[in-house]
Amino acid sequence: MKRMEKMSLSALEREQLLSATRSETVRAADARRARLILMLDNGETREAIMQRLRCDSRFISRWSSRFLAERLAGLYARHPG
User: Fold this and answer.
1) Residue 52 domain-assigned?
2) What is the pTM assigned to this prediction?
3) Which of 77, 78, 63, 76 is CA-nearest to residue 7?
4) Residue 9 neighbours by CB under 8 Å, 6+ apart
5) Which positions ≥6 away from 18 have C-beta within 8 Å?
6) Can you give the residue range of the structural domain that contains 26?
7) 57-72: pLDDT as tens digits
């Protein structure tokens, strides 16, 4: 199983993402994307991520590329709703 490229999170980014995953007020979709980035940074495999998050490879590609391009700001959906 191939490991994904690490996200190279800063301490602040890691703390904000962890906070989002624990929050009761953060939207579920935002928490899921935060979990994805943390899993990628931990070096988890694509297969493990797809199984744990119940997502497909397009979800991983979309949000990891947005994160790499825009960091935390890239994790917010473009269209509310």
Assistant:
1) yes
2) 0.88
3) 63
4) 17, 37, 38, 41
5) 34, 38
6) 11-75
7) 999 999 999 999 999 9
